[in-house]
Amino acid sequence: MSRQRLLVVAATAAEAAYVPPDLPLVITGLGKTAAAAGTARALAQMVDLSDLTVVNVGTAGALRDDLSGLFEPGVVLNHDISAAAVRALGYDPQECLVVGAGEMVLATGDVFVNDPVVRADLARRAHLVDMEGYAVAWTAAQFGVPARLVKHVSDNADSSANDWPAMVEASARELGRWLDQLLRDEG
Q1: What is the pLDDT of residues 127-164, one digit of tens each?
Q2: What is the CATH number of the domain that holds 154?
Q3: pLDDT above 70 as % of the chain
Q4: Is the separation of the CB atoms in 26 and 38 below 8 Å?
Q5: Is the Cβ–Cβ distance between 27 and 13 less than 8 Å?
Q6: Residue 94 pLDDT more than 60?
Q7: Number of domains in the chain
């Protein structure tokens, strides 16, 4: 059996600081637009997409108090789109994507969540929140490539999110360990 090819996608160099050096890595920048554009650019430049999996690694805010550590969500939501309005116009907003078998739900949006009201609203629909996962998964799907989202909780999507720069190092180490293990498991 041949080894699966990976393309690692991260929003920031800080989140990707411990990605194994032999893996191809794309740093997209923050937010859905940058994530979609960066992922699309990388995939469009590849000659062969067969056996490729896009792995989006990064930090996430916990929308529920009992969550910490590393997660691989099975569902990702585009939380800041007016899905009902778009659907009423006769279009499918595709605001919910299945990306794996896990029960964890990741909400992606361009809103940096540190407000308790926003957090409570999102917690009714999701477990984690980030700013890139949905865009990376959606873009990979447009190219016919599977995506895996791997997120490490860096904060509680509350005022602690303001300390993200101080927390990202620990998350980056855990994400790097996860990728190292994935390579060993497939090696």
Answers
A1: 999 999 999 999 999 999 999 999 999 987 777 666 77
A2: 3.40.50.1580
A3: 96
A4: yes
A5: yes
A6: yes
A7: 1
Structure tokens that stand for 42 in this block: 């990388």
Taking the alpha carbons at both ends of the chain, their separation in whole angstroms is 10
pTM of this prediction? Answer: 0.93
Print the domain residue range for 181. Answer: 5-186
Stretch (H or E) spanning 111: none
Give me the residue label for tokens 């995939």.
Answer: 43
| Antiparallel, parallel or unpaired: β 52-62 and 25-27 | unpaired
Torsion, CA 76, CA 99, CA 72, CA 96, rounded to 10: 10
Question: Which among 154, 138, 149, 150 is positioned nearest to 176, based on CA atoms?
Answer: 150
List Cβ neighbours of 73 (8 Å cut-off, separation of 6 or more). 99, 100, 102, 104, 105, 106, 127, 128, 133, 149, 151
pLDDT of residue 3: 60
Q: Return the closest-CA partner of residue 132 out of 51, 61, 33.
A: 33
Burial of 178 (0-12, 13-18, 19+ CB in 10 A): middle
- Selection from 2, 19, 1 nearest residue 150 by Cα: 19
